[in-house]
Structures are given as structure tokens and as C-alpha cells.
Amino acid sequence: MKRKCPNPSRSQGHEQTSKILQKTLFTMDPFSIVLSAVVILFLAYIFTNRNKHDYKNFPPGPKPLPIIGNVHMINMTRPHKTFLELSKMYGKIFSFQLGMEKIVLLCGYDTIKDALINRADEFSDRPSPPVIAKLQKEYGIVMANGENWKVMRRFTISTLRDFGMGKKTIENKIIEEAECLTQAFKSYGGKPFNHMTVLNAAVANIIVSILLNHRFEYDDPTLLQLMSLINDNIKLFGKPMVMLYNIFPSVMDRLPGVHKIIFKNIRQMQSFIRATFTKQKQELDVNNQRNLIDAFLAKQQEGKPESTLYYHNDNLIVLLSDLFAAGMETTTTTLRWGLLLMIKHPDIQNKVQNEIEKVIGSAQPQIEHRKQMPYTEAVINEIQRFGDIIPGNAPHATSQDVTFRGYFIPKGTTVFPLLTSVLKDPAYFEKPEEFYPEHFLTSEGHLKKNEAFIPFSIGKRSCAGENMAKMELFLFFTTLLQNFTIQLPPGAKLDLSPATGSINPPQPYEICAIPRS
What we know:
Strand order of the largest sheet: 1-2-6-3
Oligomer: single chain
Shape: globular
Number of helices: 19
Number of domains: 2
Order of helices and strands: HHHEEHHHHHHHHHHHHHHEEEEHHEE
Radius of gyration: 25 Å
Distance between the termini: 100 Å
CATH architecture of the largest domain: Orthogonal Bundle
């Protein structure tokens, strides 16, 4: 009987074919390179879809093209705009195909609340985008899954609390930093300046105080470099090339592009973090833990199974990167929107300053003043809502097969609960496209809660540092408006269109901070 040769598995065949084609790519003329890329993508399409089921009751969506899916339809710099338009055609739950991957979009507060609160466990996973997974895998807290995520989130929340989050200790640090920021603004003597760096540094110092028990001067080269690495990546993550990398990583890895800069920046950040905790490990006193790094290193030395499984250096590196970026960028961006909107609406700026004078006077703003200042609170809330800092939200993934509102969503499907569809939901906000603090005020001028106000998202994946961010926003914002009237430089034009990036920052702009007597 003739012996049959064993057949390689489909995945092995796919891998071997890809390697051969990719190796050949750089020895060909331009036409052959393009042809090879098409062949690679075609093979990827065949092998990816060969075993896919034709799921019944999958959310509707636009018909995809072979290989590229619906990428040709998307607004590459404002993808959420595309999704909002599609929701008008396909409803609050619909699908979209990026390359060969089907994703699901959720729109509107009621839909997103149903998924992230009522069905929290089923929608609590994160996908693993290749541009992130390449160097960070599923470590840390933001993109982690399973037990690793649960352990890291518990540790993070408890340690942030231990080192002052939500307490007087962190409030005092924010107050001191707000005073330093005020002095920095005063140093310009009312003349035009770009406030982004000093504002960024002030906010960064709050999370740095918890992570490192340290404070940087605003011109410190180390702090400037760390901020630059994070700010650059925030911008680069919003580039079309990153979306292409996530769709076709095996091909894009062989080509130049912004993904190479992202990887370089991440490696530099990780090198700094590794050097920092290596030094702290030599000085560690488990009975006198000075910061979050010490607390993590102490967990390593407990000798429990958990110490080896979860409290390892790779988790620490990514966790610190996650916390530093999250603790700095979104709060800074919100404050930048706040100052810009106060310039746009000087009448609102004046009302806030009047309330500050009435409640605080010349004293230092403190958190206890917040409950007496409904108008200022409403303005800060509206800044967050209108600024729409993370319009697409961080992606979720289904942890199991889910039947949700009549649709079947398989396990592992990437799901985007669009925050922009909530913060600008006309069912909950009277003037969703306008800056209107009255969204959060009763007719008598009292602060009004709005359940659709979820700038930090909701559910098990909501922002772990929400309480600290709220303290920072109130104390920095009130301190600045207590001391300055914010204006544009003479002749400058106001631009409220957001810049590009993975978040929604305002365009770069200069201000004049006019001291108030």
C-alpha cells in the first residue's frame, strides 16, 4: 500500500507561503512588489475565511469588498464620523469589516448601557490589536484580559487609593501643583505663549507622584522626553497607516511607516521604566513603601503563586506605561479644551469667575468648594462632553458567544461602544452639537445629573483613575480662572475643529493669560 505523505496544516501552509513571499518582496521590481502584496493579501483572505461560519443574525452592515472589507468607506482621520453616519442607516447595533475582521459598533446610551452594565461580563474583554500586541502583549491593565486583568485592576485601584486617590493627600498635591502652574502662567506676563507643555507637565506630575514619589520641574529633560514619547504616539495611533498595520500586520511589518516610530517610542518608554524600577528594587523596603512601584515590587517578594504569575517585570513595565499615559493625556486634553472654550465663550468664563469670587474669594480652591459651585461644575462637565476626548472609546471584545438584542455576536468579536454617540445623544442632551452648560443645570441653577454623561465610560472597563481626574479638572480649572482671564493673542483666529490623533485634542493654539487683580 502506497504511503501517503502527511499534509501540513492550513496554518503552517499559510505561514510558509507568507514567509516565502515576504522574503522575495525586496528582490523584485516595483510592479512585482505590488503583485506580490496582492497575492499575499489574497492568500490571507482565503485562509482567514476558509473556516468562518456564516453566522445567522449577525448585526447588519455595509457589504464588504474582498480583502479590504469596508476600509474604502471609512474616514481615516475621523472614523467615528463614518460610524455615526452608518448607524443612521443600520441602527444602534451594526457591523463593519476592517480587512477580514468583522467588528460590531454600539451606539446610543441605552444600547451601550445594556451591553457594558447589564451584560458586563460578556462584553468585558479587550481585543489585541497587532500594533499594541507586538510589544505589550496583554500585560498591564488597559489591554489585558482574564485573570491578569482582574489582578492588575484590583492592585491598581487599591494602590492608587493607598497613595491618596480620592483623599486629602492627593488633593494637597494637586493644589500645590496648581500653584506651580499658576506661577508658570504668570511668568509670561500676559504675553502669548503655548501653554500645552506646562499644562501637560503639571498634570503629569500628579500621576508621577504616585508612581515614583517624585516631582519634575516643567523643563526637566526626562519629563519632556517622556511627554514627547506619549504625545507622539497618541498622534501616530490616529494615522491611517496604523489601521492598515492592524489589518495586515504581516505585510506592513516589512514596510516602512509610522508603526516603526510607534515601536521605537514604546521601546524607549519601556527602557526608562525598566531602569527606574531596577534602581528602586535595590532600595526597596517592603515595610516603607514609597510609591506604586514599591508596592508592586513588594508583591513580587511575597512568594505566593500570584507573585510569579502576575507580579512580573513585563506586567510592571506595561502597567506603568498605561497609568502614565492615561493619567496625563486625557486630563491635559480636557483642560486645553476648557481654556479654548472659555475664550470662545467669554460670558461663560465671566460667570465661572463670578462664582469663584462668591464661593472661594482669594483663598486656594479646594474640593470642598465644589458642592457650592454648581455652575462651575456644569461647565466642567460640558467641557468633557463637548470635547468628546475619546469618541470611539477603547475597544471591547466579547468573552463568549453573545445574543444581544436579537443579534448573535461570536466570542472574540471586537466591539466598539461609541462614546461620541452617547455624549452627543439628542435623546439626553438638548443641544448636542453646542457648548451648553445648561445640559447639567436645573431651571433653578442647581447641578443636574445626566445618566448619559459617561466621559470615563461605564462598566468593568471604566477608567480606574476617574476620581483623581475629576479632582484635577476642578482644582486646575478653578485655580487658573481665579487668577487669569484667558484670551487669544491679538489677531489670532479661534478654531474649534479637533486635531487628528487617537484621541480628540484641540488644534495647537496660543493663549494670553491676563492676571486678574
